[in-house]
Amino acid sequence: MRTRVVFNQKGGVGKSSIAVNLAAISAYQGFKTLLIDLDPQANSSQYLLGDDATYSADKPALEPNIENYFEEMLGTTQSKGLLSNAIGSILKNRAKGLQSYVHSSPFKNLDVIPASPTLGALAYALESKHKIYKLRDALQQLEGEYERVYIDTPPAFNFFTLSALIASDRVLIPFDCDVFSKRALQTLIENVIETQDDHNDRLEIEGIVVNQFQAQAKLPREVVQQLKDEGLPVLASMLPPSILMKESHFKNQPLIHLATDHKLTQAYQSLFNEIEQNKI
């Protein structure tokens, strides 16, 4: 099983779009694939599951979800009245594993564990009870169930992002050719290296995914060249801007299912092929 985390501390760089579309191509290619959404905004969940995963003031988040999983790790289930009931609930749910929180997507071979908007509220309790390795341990139990796992993360270096980095083999870093994104890369890479040193020595930076790349514009070319000159692992397959992505979001259809032959879809296919051939 190969596990990838899509991570950038800066928002608006296409993180969820990249995670979903690579996962969708993986499934389309025949790999049994799981997408885990750790971002409280739940964009990946909504992208794949549509209205079912779309919450509002009068519509609760889809359950079971990744927040429910972490609640079980804390023992904060609804059965809190009697001590015996609480202990029984904890023991029962610990045996369930991540598989109990999986939803089938409308697409063959592609499953989802959705996020919820209140996930972030659990971070302090999870940190204080040293639950940072629980996601890694749970994913190890899915070995044989899935061939590829993609994890979408919040735009912050927090408990959930660190859990994902500890649980993963590889990191994909979305980058949108913005000067501010370039300045933030150093901190991001330092965080990944620290995670390698302290928690997960098998973790590798698989590459920087250049998103919204306008090949005819001077500034994006210069920024990308600067990254390469600094020795950063920029992936050769770059993603062009296209209105098709917004249509894909609106229709809750990944590009490979919406428009197989479109140039943006083909760019994603090229990116998928490149990372699959990567032997790191």
UniProtKB/TrEMBL annotation:
Coiled coil: none annotated. Gene3D superfamilies: P-loop containing nucleotide triphosphate hydrolases. Transmembrane segments: none annotated. It holds the Pfam family AAA_31. Residues 2-205 form the AAA domain. PANTHER family: P-LOOP CONTAINING NUCLEOSIDE TRIPHOSPHATE HYDROLASE, PARA FAMILY PROTEIN CT_582. This is Chromosome partitioning protein. The lineage of its organism: Bacteria, Pseudomonadati, Pseudomonadota, Gammaproteobacteria, Moraxellales.
